[in-house]
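User: Please go through the entry that follows and flag anything odd:
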Amino acid sequence: MKPRAALGLGTAVAVTAIGGALAVALPMRANAATGGVTGFATQNGGTTGGQGGQVVTASTGSAIHTALCNRASSSTPIVIQVSGTINHGNTTKVSGDSCNTAADRIELKEISNVTIIGVGSGAVFDQLGIHIRDSSNIIIQNVTVRNVKKSGSPVSNGGDAIGMESTVRNVWVDHVTLEASGGEDEGFDGLFDLKDDVEYVTLSYSILRNSGRGGLIGSSESDTGNNYITFHHNAYSNIDSRTPLLRGGIAHIYNNSYTNLVESGINSRAGGRAKVDNNHFKDSTDVLGTFYTTEAGFWQVSGNIFDNVTWSAPSGDHQPAGPNPTSNTTVSIPYSYTLDGASCVPSIVAQTAGANKGLQVSNGNCVPTSPTGGPATPPPTTGGPTTPPPTTPPPSGTNLSLSGGADGSSKASGTSYGNVKDGSMTTYWSPSGTTGSISVKWSSATSVARISIREASGATGLIGAYRVLDGDTGAVLATGSGAGTISFGATSTKKITFEITGASGTPRVAEFEAYAS
């Protein structure tokens, strides 16, 4: 890593805000306090990972690959609980119809509906990167990835701790620790790199440290097709640059703590637009601007604190936003969120960010809290890797709701029960409050084994606790939290009811799909 640049001698704190922006801010809710997926990963249908799938344990890279390859298909949901140290010595290429793996990395290629979560005393990917390519609906949670190299020995994943490329959609990376032991001269590259058509990604409650490069969105000035990335409640420390580097697209960057950014920080360029809210920058240089190019980027700033930040003089390819950053664009955010005050961000992030912190999140008032919804820390595992038992084929077939009717407990003004079975994501049903029930029904008994609850755009993540009922008998078929795919034992009935018993806002169910298998 390059020597640290000199910083200003004084300690100055400046808080910037957009004068008129607060009056038109979107409604906010304490989404972060649920422990579930947040940010742009909630959009485009949402991110559920392997929810509802088989749970498999693994303590080697080969076991992770084997679990992927033993699925019935490349889209069969699976949750892989990982413990111990994953490294080159225990990672091999495994072949199968439902996977495409490699020996020098954890390869998530041409697959979907996967959760990888650290359990027990921890999961460490040592000198072995995680690569996501041509894949969708992936969750990575509660793991450490360290010292991944692109030169020297051993090498892995082009030197990226976590890298995504080539048509990747809906990824949530949460409560992870990504770290290196130097910069490019020492053989390392980026900690979190996204390129070649990656969209709808959230990085939350994570630590990124001791690296020359934090991460990039877009690999060159022509790679501007990556979009809709959220960074929140992350701790960046001892990083030379790229926190992140944004080429084109939109990034929402809020409630992050930045310490000792040596050369530059958030680098918006080539038309990129960053919404930068309530972050805390300390002991750093040129934390926001367009750097190393003449192709400008843009930013909207509000509520940030700059503590002992040094700003360089502008030059042709070096355009810092400071010393008094002001907005030069506006960025519309489609999801709800709650901002912690920038002054307490270092404290709340120190308590919640990174692996092995119990997946704690902020309650929106700078207080850590254990998650109440979404993925929870699984119980510790024992023993070595297990061979996954045979899986059943993924649910498939005709959406039975399209041939049925619909009713419910109540409906908000302007909505209709029938909107949940019209095959359109642009119409929806809402209850008159935050809870209520919606049903699909048929004139004769119909066998149903799976339903899919799809939330309307702008309302993903609102549904909390639910029950699925046999409308004929009142029997409870399934319970859980959050929308998505819900499977249960095949039931012959004239009516299936989805009952929302908890929500963080007024739900909008765009489609209630029912399937026989």
In short: The two ends are 55 Å apart (CA to CA). Helices lie at 61-69, 345-352. DSSP finds two helices and 35 strands in the chain. Residues 1-34, 374-396 have pLDDT under 50 and may be disordered.
